[in-house]
Amino acid sequence: MNFEVSEVKLKKGEPVDRALRRLKKKVDREGTLKEVRNHRHFEKPSEKRRRRMKVAKFNAMLAARYADV
Predict the structure, then answer these.
(1) Taking a C-beta distance cutoff of 8 angstroms, is the pair 19, 10 a contact?
(2) What total number of domains does the chain contain?
(3) Mean pLDDT across the chain, nearest whole number?
(4) What's the pTM value of the predicted model, to 2 decimals?
(5) In angstroms, rounded to a whole number, what is the distance separating the alpha carbons of residues 19 and 4?
(6) Distances from the Cα of 8 to the Cα of 12, 15, 33, 56, 58, angstroms
(7) pLDDT of 30-59, one tens digit each?
């Protein structure tokens, strides 16, 4: 397995909580936590396909709703 570590360098005089907030945003943008949660249990190909179709339908509905705006 190939693991990439998200890291944030502390700037001089930067509070730790601000750096932690930057790390959380970076991890969220990379989708690391979402990936870990998806791999907690095996998902059958049919379940994966059903989930993707549900997301696609929702996105199509939003696109249709806001197409005229």
Answers:
(1) yes
(2) 1
(3) 91
(4) 0.56
(5) 19
(6) 13, 13, 16, 34, 35
(7) 988 888 888 899 999 999 999 999 999 999
